[in-house]
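Justification of resources, computational component.

The compute hours requested in this renewal are based largely on the per-chain cost of generating structure records like the one below. Each record pairs the submitted sequence with a full structure-token output. That output is archived, and it is also reused by downstream analysis tasks.
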Amino acid sequence: MRAKSSLSLKEVFLEHIPGGLPSRRPEGKKKLLTMVLYETQYLDDISEIFLENGVRGASVVDSVGLRGVLTHVPLFADFMNFLGDTSEESKTITTIVAENQLQRIVDSVEQLLGDLGTHSGVMIYTTDIDFMKGSLEVY
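The structure output for this chain reads:
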């Protein structure tokens, strides 16, 4: 009832399912997971995948790909319009995950969107974490 957002409401709901959510903090070696998502209509589904896999906080930033920048350069604008794809908006999601969570998350995203090796419009990459202090948990 006091949830500040739909994401908070989802977290509370998922916490009360049998077995609850996995640990609040990633255990073991940690990775910075970055996902660039041009198919922004899937953002809620991706958020659910993260929650179901124990990801308790993330940062979502509005972003624009290079194509969105080049369409403002006259030399490239006509060529980009010729390609027909007008999507410039994207979301860049960053979160901390345990290394052992990574494959489950990628598998779940691929169940939603298809093989990321052949699918354009989304990319996931990770970076090793050498230092971390603080939290992005929604609560």
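The first helix runs from residue 6 to 15. The mean pLDDT is 79.
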